[in-house]
Every structure is written in C-alpha cells, then in structure tokens.
Here is the input.
Amino acid sequence: MTERLTPDEIGRAVELLRAGELVAFGTETVYGLGADACDGAAVAAIYAAKGRPSFNPLICHFADAETAFRYVKANKLAEKLAAKFWPGPLTLVLPRAETCPVSQLAGAGLPTLAVRVPAQPAALRLLAAFGGPVAAPSANRSGRISPTSAAHVLAELGGRIAAVLDSGACTVGVESTVLDLSGETPVLLRPGGVTLEALQAEIGPVAHAAGDAAAPASPGMLASHYAPGLPVRLNATEAAADEALLAFGPPLPGARLCFQLSATQNLNEAAARLFEGLHELDARAPALGLKRIAAQPIPAAGLGLAINDRLARAAAPR
Ligand code: TXA
Ligand code: MG
Here is the structure.
C-alpha cells in the first residue's frame, strides 16, 4: 500500500526517506520519485520502481542554493543563475565536490551532478526537514508520461513506492530546464520550465547540446521518451477519423475526442496541461476506437520549445 500524505505530514515523509524508502512528492514542474541520494540501495530502488536504464543519472533536490553548492563545485555563472532562478525550474549540472557523499549510482557514475531547488512550498519544507540531497527523477515508469498530480503517480507506481506527498497539481507542468555548467561554455541539455530566452538574458549565449537520438548529449535525451500508449502525430492540420486531438487554440473540426491545452494559445497554460492531456487522451481514446493522437502545432518560442521537445519525444518511433 502506498501512503497518500498531505502537506501536514512532512514528518512522516522524512521518516520514510531516512528509512531508505521511496517517497514521491510534487514540485512545480512534475512529481518526483524521491529517495535519499546518499543511500545507494534507496537510489537503486528508484531505478527498479521506474524500470529505468541505469545509465540515466538523477537530479538531486535541495531546499536552498547554499546546501546544494556543498555537493558540487559551483562557479560564478551557477551562483548568478541560482540567485535569479532558484527556487524554480532550472537544473544545473556541475562537477561533483571533492568529498560529495551522493551515491555514484544517483549520478550514473558521472563526474558531474545535477542539482536543483524546486519552487513548491511543501517540497521545500520536505527538503529542509530532510536536510540532505533527495534524488528524484519524474515519478513515472521509464519512458512514460511524466506525472503532474498525485493521482498520476498512484496510477503508475501505486503499491511499488512507500508514499506520495500530495501537494496538488503542478503549476509549471514540464520538467526543469537542464543546463550544463561544467565546461567552458553553458550548454542546454534539456529545454524546460525556464526559457532559453530568460537564461540568455541573464548569461548571454547558451549552446544547444549537440548529439542525436542515437548518441544523446544528456543520457536522458533518448528520442522515445514521454511516450503515451498511443502514437502521436505532430503539427496536425486536420484530424483523421481515428485520431484523438490535442488542441492548442481553436480545435480542428471532426475530432471526436479533444483535449484543449489552451484555448487562448497561452504557452504557460499549455505546458501546465500537457502531460495531463496526454494521460487523458491515452486513457479515453481506446473506448472510442481511436488509434492515434494528433497534436496541433505549437510555436517554438518561450515555453513552446520545451512543449515541442516533449511532443517530439512522444512522437518518436519506438
Ligand atoms: O523538473 C524536473 O527536473 C523533475 C522534477 C522531479 O525535479 N525531474 C526530472 O528528472 O525531470 P528526470 O530524471 O526525469 O530527468 C533528469 C534529466 C535527465 O535527462 C538526465 O539525463 C539529466 O537530467 N541529468 C541528470 N544528471 C545529469 C548529469 N550529471 N549530466 C547530464 N545530464 C544529467
Ligand atoms: Mg523523466
């Protein structure tokens, strides 16, 4: 049985983490599947529960930048970005500190570590009470849609994890932006909740990760990811009879099942509703005999970059 905890039950969540158990918790981006990052067995349990390939490293979550920077070698850029965007949906990849106690498995054996401070009040209280790094990938089975509610987590992982801390729906809805600051120049590894434009306004040019689906720059950038059960077709300008529609703005005529990301074409709203939409279409389409999801085009600016990245992965051949 997976315990469903309220934000008043942080103490219980901390007790479970200390005991090496898995506790899912809401962040502003998506729900994370948390474990004590310094406990190798607990981290291994994350990979097992998710069915995740062990080469894919995890993000360590902290209550504040000061604590995070005890575990990595921060630099000027990192300090500047942390001051501007933390707490918030930005993950920084930095060299591990000399005596970093985080389990090698959490970092998949890499010399770097990904750190972030989430902007979610209950998560911050949990992290402060726990005191150390909490490793947390998105709380979904590997390759599946990221969860943006406790109900999504329970549907995917109920019975396989000790508890889920229910802090309601995630406000951002796409994962954090992952920025590699371990080299000469900053490299964007994954577009996410903090836009590229906002990053560049702060630190100037940011390189895009080179690499393709076969040899991803970031181990997590596998092409087929965030996959709903149904195939996804991108940039749809008409809906076929056997397609459910993921709409952005005025829906295409003819679709018998439609999930509206944002009627007003607001990218923030669309990001927050993206995974919920994929979950819902996936769940409801089969009963109607629908075989695919058609997604309407979404502009590739601001949060649209992250939304299109996730949709392209959902649409990638598997
Ligand atoms: O918004 C988020 O980031 C959510 C919430 C729970 O915080 N977490 C999340 O974790 O999306 P996950 O495991 O689904 O994605 C982490 C990404 C992966 O693409 C992984 O490869 C990359 O971060 N990553 C982690 N550590 C890295 C490292 N040392 N070097 C390069 N990439 C790294
Ligand atoms: Mg994920």
Remarks:
- The mean pLDDT is 90.
- Residues 27, 29-30, 32, 56-59, 89, 91, 93, 107, 110, 112-114, 118, 136-138, 175-176, 178, 189-190, 218-221 surround threonylcarbamoyladenylate (ligand 1) (CB under 6 Å).
- The longest helix spans residues 267-284.
- The radius of gyration is 19 Å.
